[in-house]
From TrEMBL:
The keyword Metal-binding does not apply. This is glycine oxidase. The gene is thiO. Keywords: Oxidoreductase, Thiamine biosynthesis. Signal peptide: none annotated.
Length: 357
């Protein structure tokens, strides 16, 4: 039996890394065990920090997202100082163009500005002729999810977190109200406390309703002579995320197809059609890359955070479309709960028991 010390975090995505980072900063002994770091949904995201542009209604989820967005600038700055690596954090704002058919979608918050047809086309040249206006969300931002994942991976190791990759957790073994150990492909592992952060694969270890939602994406490289895309475009059928290196990330499908891998002609065709309608200026830019990933979705599309049925197992999964955005606040709230039994009342809405009334 391998003893990992105080806390063992199961999972290799941004949520597990953010939790491990905060635990270690507060002095805990932490080990991460994961099957494949590159498999996490983290690597397949676009990195939008967009609680307003997504029109999340007033709710505990919006409160959680806004709190996390407020942490981002300082959080990424500290990561960059620790590692010397870029995270691609960019407080660029987000523009949500509207077509006639979705004009009824309101943006009822104080952090948005309505732009009429003339103003939005002047603000961002190259928009499609069907765009009749849109909302500007100056507080929303973006981060380069792949750069962020790399920086977190380096940061936790710089701080002394042990990472065990290539290890598949096969079973969480319980006795009464406690987890006694993990059965893994590398033998038995034991710790004082366990944190489940395995995203779309969580249901393989616990009977909680987290299922995969496949998302297909692609990127193009803006040509030097192309009309420059200056901000994120959050459309009704697609979004375009410009990176500072000239790439544009185009996403994303949302498919209930289990763990079916690969890009499909239909999925990519729908993305390209929606993207070209939104921003025709990109139609001649060369395609750079296709990819896909599996978002962890719950029936109500809210994460599962906090206590579990077992005293020494904490849950941090089911973040669905907001894993990148919610990483900082998840790290802080889960670390405070595990180390200090400091419960943030906001976590009430995300307790696993809502699925077992």
């Amino acid at each position: 039996m391998k003893s990992t010390g105080e806390i063992l975090v199961i999972g290799g995505g941004i949520i597990s890394l953010a939790i491990a980072l905060e635990l270690k900063r507060q002095g805990a002994s932490v080990t991460i065990v994961c099957r494949d770091f590159t498999e996490a949904a983290t690597h397949a995201a676009a990195g939008m920090l967009a609680p307003q542009a997504e029109r999340i209604p007033p709710s505990p989820l919006l409160d959680l997202c806004l709190r996390s967005r407020a942490l981002y600038a300082n959080w990424t700055q500290k990561l960059e100082e620790l590692t010397g690596l870029e995270t691609g954090y960019w407080a660029c704002g987000i523009l949500a163009p509207a077509y006639q058919e979705n004009l009824a979608l309101k943006a009822d918050n104080l952090e948005s500005v309505w732009l009429d047809r003339a103003t939005i086309h002047q603000s961002q040249p190259g928009l499609g002729s069907d765009v009749i206006g849109g909302w500007w969300f100056p507080e929303d931002a973006q981060v380069d999810n792949r750069l962020l994942a790399k920086a977190l991976w380096v940061a936790v190791q710089e701080l002394g977190v042990e990472i065990q990759t290539g290890v598949t957790v096969e079973k969480i073994v319980q006795n009464g109200d406690r987890v006694t150990h993990l059965q893994t492909s590398a033998g038995t592992w034991q710790a004082d406390h366990y944190i489940l952060a395995t995203g779309a694969w969580s249901q393989t270890l616990l009977p909680i309703p987290v299922t995969p939602k496949k998302g297909q994406m692609l990127s193009v490289q803006m040509l030097p002579e192309s009309m420059p895309l200056q901000t994120v475009l959050y459309g009704s059928d697609s979004y375009l995320v410009p990176r500072q290196d000239g790439r544009i990330i185009i996403g994303a499908t949302s498919e209930d197809v289990g763990f079916t891998r690969g890009n499909t002609p239909l999925g990519i065709q729908r993305l390209l059609s929606a993207a070209i309608r939104l921003y025709p200026a990109l139609q001649n830019d060369p395609i750079q890359e296709f990819w896909w990933g599996f978002r962890p979705a719950t029936p109500d599309e809210l994460p599962i955070l906090g206590a579990s049925p077992y005293r020494n197992l904490t849950l941090a999964t089911g973040h669905y479309r907001n894993g990148i955005l919610l990483a900082p606040i998840t790290g802080v709230t889960i670390a405070n709960l595990v180390l200090h039994q400091k419960f943030d009342p906001l976590l009430d809405a995300f307790h696993w028991s809502r699925f077992n009334p």
